[in-house]
TrEMBL record:
Keywords: Hydrolase, Membrane, Transmembrane, Transmembrane helix. InterPro entries: AB_hydrolase_3 (IPR013094), AB_hydrolase_fold (IPR029058), GDXG_lipolytic_enzyme (IPR050300). This is Alpha/beta hydrolase fold-3 domain-containing protein. Residues 130-340 form the Alpha/beta hydrolase fold-3 domain. It comes from Bionectria ochroleuca. The chain crosses the membrane at residues 12-34. It comes from the Eukaryota.
């Protein structure tokens, strides 16, 4: 059931409350200058304060059911030449758990190119491309240009990719966008770049947070169905590997949950909106990859911060995947990093640490310095 704050005039009241609350939070946040008063003492004052403010913003989004999808679509329209729309593949590409349903079928989806779309005369078979799926707890859209610009820098500079496609799948807003709709979109995006002429051996698929969760399910789908060739590799940044109907109890028990930036209500909203109303044994591994390891032909790079509320399940998932015979898996842990530090690297002062993770990924995939 949607919170009362998701409807007017209560939403406006919540905004007014927040405008008063944030300055008070900033004032009270000065207490974090003293290490014993921080939720996690080893985090810096700056990171602790940023986490508390971001958590409040995400809580606002959860309480008011603000997905941001309309803003992302508007932003894509403004980008014009850097914006592209992927059309659904032929129906045989969506099978098994992704079989179209009466209320959930493949649809056109959009993304942004960085540094720009490939020129008409490009030899795409030689280009190294990364297709990235942003997070958002399944319910918030982060495919705007400001996020794409942020993510593209280490992709182009440290990972040395020729191009990035920042792909915004449909977030779960109603019955038509529950699972498997977002995962159908990943089929659509991947088919799109393959159809353009990109060679699978030069494609890296990437996702952060809930985007990494959907991507993991998509990689499982590729292995089980072979409807499309496997990419060279997959990057999972702060993946949400253990969403479940008991997310509140499970997340609150996590070691770093109180210090991280993810509010429980956002995670609850994500599970409520994204999960099918009726769960089957066939679908569960696609929703919760933890304890459901599988074999994959794609090399798998997993990144997490050891101050994340999701740190332990991410570490365990990487270990489980590495124990599957034939899998090639690399876990990179950034010390002192909270959830999804890639985007917040400038504000938190962790630029060098995050760029080091991308350098590690480059070495892992290409064996080059």
């Amino acid at each position: 059931m949607a919170p009362v704050w998701s409807k007017q005039p209560f939403k406006a009241v919540y905004v007014a409350i927040l405008l008063v609350k944030v300055p008070v939070m900033l004032l009270l946040g000065t207490r974090f200058a003293f290490k014993p008063l921080r939720p996690l003492g080893r985090l810096s004052f700056k990171i602790t304060l940023i986490n508390s403010l971001v958590r409040e913003w995400l809580l606002f989004a959860a309480q008011t059911r603000s997905s941001g999808m309309g803003t992302v679509k508007s932003d894509h329209e403004k980008m014009k030449e850097r914006s592209a729309q992927a059309q659904p593949a032929s129906i045989e590409h969506y099978t098994g758990v992704l079989t179209p349903q009466a209320t959930r079928s493949p649809a056109p989806v959009g993304g942004l190119w960085y540094p720009g779309p490939p020129p008409a005369n490009s030899d795409l078979k030689r280009e190294k491309i990364v297709v990235h799926f942003p997070g958002g707890a399944f319910v918030m859209a982060f495919g705007a240009d400001v996020n794409g610009q942020n993510f593209s820098k280490p992709i182009l500079e440290e990972l040395k990719a020729d191009r990035l496609f920042f792909a915004q799948y449909r977030v779960a807003e109603d019955e038509s966008t529950r699972f498997p709709a977002p995962m159908q979109d990943l089929v659509t995006f991947y088919h799109h770049v393959l159809k353009m002429g990109y060679d699978p051996s030069n494609i890296l698929l990437s996702g952060d947070s809930a985007g990494a969760n959907i991507l993991t399910g998509f990689v499982r789908y590729l292995e089980e169905t072979s409807v499309l060739p496997s990419p060279k590799g997959v990057m999972l940044w702060s993946p949400w590997t253990n969403p479940s109907v008991k997310v509140k109890e499970e997340y609150n028990q996590a070691t770093n949950a109180n210090a991280d930036l993810l509010p429980t209500k956002l995670l609850e909203w994500g599970v409520e909106a994204y999960f099918p109303v009726s769960l089957s044994k066939e679908v569960v591994p696609y929703l919760c990859p933890l304890h459901h390891a599988f074999k994959t032909k794609s090399s798998l790079f997993v990144h997490t911060g050891d101050a994340e509320g999701l740190y332990e399940p991410t570490r365990d998932f990487a270990q489980e995947m590495s124990e599957v015979e034939g899998n090639r898996v690399k876990l990179h842990v950034t010390e002192g990093a909270s959830h999804n530090p890639v985007y917040a690297r400038d504000g938190t002062g962790m630029v060098a640490e995050i760029y080091r993770a991308f350098e590690d990924a480059h070495q892992f995939f290409y064996g080059e310095n």
